[in-house]
Amino acid sequence: METSMEELQQHYSGMETSELTELLKSSTLTQIEKQALKKELISRNFIPETWMDTPDNIDEEKNIKNQKNENDSLSRWWILFHLWGGVCLKAYSDVSGLSQLLLGSLRGSGHSAASSYAGTAAIIAVGTVALGYFLSKFLVNSINSGRLPNKGKLIVKILLPIGYLAGAIFLAMATAPLFIPPVETSQTSVPKSQPKKSSTIKPVKAYTTIQSAEGATEADLDQEGLKGLENWIVETMLKKGRNNFTALGYNPKEFKPKLDANSVYVTAGGKKLAIVKINMDDSMRSVTVMGIIGTELHRVSCIRSSNHDIPIWLGPCGDKIYEVFGVSVRP
Q1: What are the pLDDT digits (tens) for 307-318?
Q2: In whole angstroms, what is the distance from residue 213 CA to residue 226 CA?
Q3: Which of 84, 133, 220, 294 shows the smallest number of beta carbons within 10 Å?
Q4: 3-state class of 262 per DSSP?
Q5: 298-319 burial string, b = 16+ CB within 10 Å, else e?
Q6: CA separation (Å) from 45 to 31, 50, 67, 133?
Q7: Which has more confidence, 205 or 108?
Q8: What are the structural domain ranges in the chain?
Q9: CATH number 3.40.1000 given to 204-325
Q10: Cα angle 11, 14, 17; round to 5
Q11: Taking CA 121 as the corner, what is the angle to CA 103 and CA 104, rounded to the nearest 5 degrees?
Q12: Does residue 58 contact residue 135 with C-beta atoms inside 8 Å?
């Protein structure tokens, strides 16, 4: 009894593609077996549908080899195609500020902190490209399995690389305000020689740094050392302020801010802490709290870009002090 086309296809569906291609080379196949085998290979996108009309005396082995070479060549092009999707997604995350948001700011100033920061940046970059690659692959597979005619599918896939780039640009412009803090500008014109001072209460930003105490202990925290810490913080702030002043297009020689600094030691919960408060030009305030934990010098820096007090017993600054030193500094 002759086996039907459907039964043969069901039989062939359980075989590997390599087994089917070897079987297709056989000269002992009947016409219906050969047609069923071709249908199965077509369903797997291994050979084109035109092979169904191929005469029986054609060199099947040569055709299979040529088709495999074509598939390998197309596969390499598709890898580049999907990588382009990954590159566009990476460009979007960089321009929109999403990458920097995920990366955060550099914590610490040592070699290990810099290495960790660079490693995290690399992981985010590679992960973003890989995500874009697989999203592109998923999209192309969805188009291939869709109901569009073959010509329509081809047109859509040709336009995809342009769509990736245009989409990255448009999304970056649309979402950048969500990830990049807005730059506040004043409506009142001011002389170019000096930025305008704002009376708006700005938020407090708190961050921490850790460095070696270089053998120092709490017993070494005396008045002379406190004054040295105060001078060092003042010099650092003046240097950064001058750099920012220059970056805004002003003459660095005109950067002559009025700066008031005072420092004191406090003991909270048995922990000796050095506190340095600075008011720069009545436009910015900072509080730096330093203490020794083990062999490390921990520093909590709190900054407000307006002339308003920074409480160290509550809010972002108080929370960060408690997080680092485990104590609350009460007024």
Answers
A1: 888 888 888 898
A2: 14
A3: 294
A4: strand
A5: bbbbbbbbbbeebebeeebbbe
A6: 21, 12, 11, 22
A7: 205
A8: 5-58, 68-179, 204-325
A9: yes
A10: 110
A11: 15
A12: no
